[in-house]
Design goal:
311 residues, mainly alpha, two-stranded antiparallel sheet, 2 strands, 1% strand
Length: 311
Amino acid sequence: MEALLDRPPVLSLPNRKFAIQKRFAFFTIMVPTVGFAAAMALAAIQGVHPVEWILLGSMYVITGFGVEAGLHRYFSHHSFHGNRFVTYWLGITGSMAAQGPVIFWASIHRQHHASTDSDGDPHSPWLDGRGPAGRLKGFIHAHVGWLFKNDQSDWSKQSMDLLKDRDIVRINANYPLYILLGLLIPAAIGMAFLGPNGAWRGALWGGLVRIFLWDHMTWGVNSLCHTFGSRPFRSRNKSGNIGWLALPTLGGSWHHNHHTFPYSAKNNLAFYQIDPSGIFISSLALLGLAKNVKGPSPRIIESLRKENSHA
């Protein structure tokens, strides 16, 4: 009996799954954070080589389109159709951002839309009270805290269509490989231009710093764009448009527009709104790589604007 009492408790399957999830979240958050801090310290001492800037910028844009145009608009919302090349390209580059496998990312996002800013939303900043302490707690939860929450909901139910696609399942299963690829590519390019030391410098700037920055852009849409921003359409949720975030989020911060028309491949609904991911998708269509690009008609947009103005 004493021997049995001395044994550590056996975790249930859901708790074991959460423990793994929490460790993985901690690893994928802390490693880029440490890498970013190390890069800033080195930059203060020895500056940043142009090759490092180029690797950071190019890898940021490539994996950023993989997330915003790929994981978000293509896989989560089916806002346009693409062939196998597009599916693999966006699935792989989106996975290289290290924000989770394709099916996980899409499932969480679909659940967010199903219960936006209400019970069931995985990362709403509005579910922890209305006072200053509650707002701060909610903001932190929406930005990064939700990754450590023991929510035992089966998000995969949100993505049964993706689970039926063999190509997507294959991309999903190879997720760790694509994270590694996202580090090896800039490392190889860095070594080619800067010599042996260029390998770790390329992996640092084109890999870890890039992951750190894009993480906070994506999380900023969850936290900032559900707390601040303009709301030109009537809505039951708190999503807002933040124009100054449009370029770094590649159009993701026109978030109120997105929640108004979640099926749309483009988030810009006015001439002054810049949506790089929408331009990227339009370019795919011009090349014959995308079709059935969805979006609201000008008549519907204007009708909803007038409805809001008369509310």
